[in-house]
Amino acid sequence: MKIGSNSPVAKPQPAPSPQAAPAPAPKPAPAQAPKPQMPANEPFTSRRDELRRQAATLIQSDTATTLRTERLGDGNQNCLERAVALSGPRDQILLLDDSRDNSGHALIQHPDGSVTDPNFPQIRYESLGQWQAMNPSYTLVASAPAASVRSALKAPVGPERDAALAAAGLQRVADIPVADEGPQWVTIADSTRIRSSDDITATVTTTRGEVPAEIIGPVEGDTLAELQKIAEGDWYEVRLATGETGYVIADRTTELTEFTADTSFGDLSTELGAPLEPSHLDEDGNLVQTFTEGQLTLRSDGVRVITPNEGEPVEVPPEWGTLSANAMLLDEDGATIQGSQQLGEVPVQIIRQVPDDQDFDSVARGDWFEVRLPDGRSAYVFNDRLSPPVADRRLGDDLIPAELGAPLGPMLPAEGGGFAQKYENGEVRIDDSGNVSVLNAAGEEVASRPSSLATSVADANAHHVTQRGAREAAGVNEEDVPIDGAGNPVGNPYNDGSEWFDYNDCGPTSVVIAASLVGAIDHPDAAHAGEEIDRVRDLIFDTDTTKSVTTGVEQLAEGIQDVGANAIVHTTASLDAVDAALDAGNPVILGGDPMDAWGKGDPNYLEAGNDGFLHWVVVSGRTPPPEENYIINDPLSPTGAREVTREELEAYLNPGMGMVEVMP
Fold first, then answer.
1. What is residue 298's three-state secondary structure?
2. How open is the CA angle 501-506-512, to the nearest 5 degrees?
3. How distant, in Å, are the alpha carbons of 86, 116, 265 from that of 272?
4. Where are the alpha helices (DSSP H) in 305-396?
C-alpha cells in the first residue's frame, strides 16, 4: 500500500437525502454532502491543492464505461459495477445522464419503486423522483432488468459482449456512459484519534489497530482552520464501519484500493468473488460486505446470510462453542489480549479453524480457532480451551428433557422478543415475562416453567417476610413501628416478632422470600416467619443456631439449595446481571446499602435513623413497560414490597457483595 493521503475525487457525487437517511448504529451519520468540484483554473499553491490536482487529473483521464465496455472485477469500481453487485433478481438498473459532463450514473430500482444509489447503499429512497430532487443534474435515459445487465456483463468485452447485449435486448442502452466512482476508502493508522463532527474538541473513538473508513470529503473553511490548531495538515471527514463520522488528519491515513473479505464470514466469501468494500454495519446493526457476485450479512443472532446476485438468499446457522474459564486469547500477531481471561464459561461464535500458514505453535502446538467474543472482538484460542455449547444455566438442571439432545448455541435474543436457545431436536424459549417453554422438533411444548417473578407490589407482597417484628428488642424507637390512620401502633403483618435472633438475619430472610417466589417453600405467615427464618439459618450453618450472623453469597446459595431450589452465584453483581436473571424469569438476592437508596428517610423502615450498613434484599421482578421499575422485597420493610427505579437500585448496589440468582 502507498502511505500518505489522497484527496477525494473532484467530481461531485450524488447526495443522499437527509430525510431518507436511516440512523446507523451507534450514532446517526449526517447526510452525505456533494464532494466539491474544483474549477480548472484554480491555482494550486498548497499541499492540499496539489492533492486535489492529482485527483482532478484522475477524473480527467478516466474513460467512462458503458454496458459494452465495463469489465466486472477489474479493480476499477464505478457506480455500474456496484449497482450490478447490489441488485436483486427482480430489480432494474437505471442509467442516467449528468448534464454537467459527458458521463452519467447508475441506480437500482426495486420492485416497489424505491431506489438505491450504489454509492450510498445504506439509504433507500422512496422513488426516483425523491433521488432526483437531491440530484437535479441527472436525467433518466434508460432502464433494463438487473438480471439481463448482469448476464450480459459476464460476457467478455468484444463480439461476445455485443452478442450478449443483443440477445438481452440492450442494444439501445449499450453505449450510455457511466463513470461516477464509488466511495473512496482509506485505512486509518493504529492509535489515531477521530475528532467529533459535532465538537472537534471531543473524540469519537481512538483506533485500535488499522481501521478502514470511507472518505466523506476534505475539510475546508473555518472547520479546517480550527482542526489545524490541533495538528497542521490536511483533514478528512470520514465514516467508520460502525456508522460513526468524524475528522481525521490525512497524514494518518493510507489509500485503500484493495479490500479483503471479513473473517467473520469464514469461507463463505469464496463463493461471491472479490469484495467491493470493507465490511460495515447497516442500519439494523448487522455486519454487511458487498462482493462482485453478491452480499454477505452477519446478523446479530449469529446467522450468516448469503445473498447472491442471482438466486435466493441462503441462511447459514452459526457454529458456536464454549470458551473455558481462564482461557488465554491471542490477537492475530500471537500477542496475548490484555484482560481477556474469562472468569467463567463464555459462549463464542466459531469463525474458522486457523490455517497452517497462520502459526501459533510457538504458544501451543495443535489446532487453533478464530472466535468472535460476546463484545464483538475476534480472537484466537487453542482447541482444548473450546468445548461444545452448554444449556443455559439459568434454566436449572431438571427442565430440559433428554429428547432435545445437545444445545447448538447459547441463549440469544429471539425475533419478536424474549430469548431462545436452539437444540438438536427443538428449542427453549423465554418470553418477555420470564415464562419458559420447551418445544420439540415438531414445535410441540414438552415442558414449561412459569415465571417466578412478581409484576406488581401486590404480587411481591404475597411472598414478603421481614427479618424481625416491630418490637422485638427493648429500646426500639417508636418511630420504627408502623401506625394506623389514627396514629395507633399496629402489628407487623410480615413477622409478629415471636421469634427473633438478633439483627443479622437479612440473608436467611431473603432466602425465605426467594424460595417462596420460586415455589420451593410455602410462604410463612407473620406468626411463623421467625420460625422459618431460624430453620433456614440452621440449614445454612448445619447446626442449631441461637444467634443471627452475617452471610455471604456462597452461604445464601447453600440455603437456597437446602430448601429445594437452585442457585447461581455471581461473585460480582451488576444491574446487567440482574436484568439477565430477570429476563430468564429468576429472582435475585442482591447486596448493597439501603441507606444510599430507599431506606433513607422512610420512618417505617426497621433501621430508620441508621447511617448505613450492608444488607441483602430480593429483586422480585419488574413492573410492565413502559416504566419497567424494579420490585424489591426488603427484609427491613414492615410495609411490604416496594417499587424502585433503576437509579435507586444502582445507588443501593454493592458490586463486591455479589448476588445469587434463584431458580426452581
1. strand
2. 95
3. 12, 21, 11
4. none
Cβ atoms of 482 and 639 within 8 Å: the answer is: yes
- Residue 440 domain-assigned (yes or no): yes
Among the ranges given (404-418, 448-462, 560-574, 638-652), the one the predictor scored with the smallest mean pLDDT: 404-418
Residues 589 and 610 occupy one common structural domain: yes
Looking at the fold, whether 286 and 419 belong to one and the same domain comes out as no
Bin 75: left if φ > 0, else alpha if -120 < ψ < 50, else beta. Answer: left
Read off the DSSP letter of residue 268: G
The CA dihedral of 401, 403, 408, 412, to the nearest 10 degrees, is -40
Higher pLDDT, 47 or 248: 248
Give the integer Cα–Cα distance in Å for 602 and 613.
15
Tell the residue number behind the cell numbers 453469597, with chain if given.
553
- Specify the higher pLDDT residue, 321 or 351: 321
- Residue 488 forms part of a structural domain: yes
Nearest CA-CA partner of 81 in 128, 44, 118, 134: 118
Give strand pairing partners of 143: 94
Domain count, the chain: 5
CA atoms of 178 and 404, how far apart (whole Å): 56
431/500 same-domain check:
no
C-alpha cell at 289: 460486505
pLDDT digits (tens, 9 = 90+) for 133-181: 888 888 888 888 888 888 888 888 888 888 888 887 777 778 877 655 5
Alpha-helix runs per DSSP H in 62-118: 79-86
**Torsion, Cα of 183, 186, 192, 194 (10° steps):** -10
Would you state the cell numbers that stand for residue 420, as one nine-digit string?
Answer: 431462545
Task: Answer yes or no: do 71 and 109 share one domain.
Answer: yes
Helix orientation angle between 529-541 and 553-562, rounded to the nearest 10 degrees: 110
- Residue 118 in domain: yes
CB neighbour burial string for 143-171, b if at least 16 within 10 angstroms, e if fewer: bbbbbbbbbbbebeeeeebeebbeebebe
366 and 463 inside one domain = no
Do residue 373 and residue 430 come from a single domain?
Answer: no
Residue 455: all three cell numbers together: 409484576
Take residue 145 and report the three cell numbers written for it.
432488468
Q: Which residues of 385-418 are buried (b: 16+ CB within 10 A; e: fewer)?
A: bbeebebbebbbeebbeeebeebbbbbbebeeeb
d(CA 103, CA 65): 9
Domain assignment present for 248: no
DSSP string, 517-585: HTTSSPPP-TTTHHHHHHHHHHHHHTS--SS-----HHHHHHHHHHTT-EEEEESS--HHHHHHHHHTT
Cell numbers for 85, please give them.
453487485
Domain extent at residue 515: 457-663
Give the best-scoring range by mean pLDDT among 15-19, 97-101, 316-320, 514-518.
Answer: 514-518
Residue 242 has pLDDT above 80, yes or no: no
Q: Which residue has the cell 417453554?
A: 437
Residue 648: how many CB atoms within 10 A of its CB?
A: 18
DSSP 378-409: EEEEEGGGEE-----GGG-SSSS-GGG-SB-S
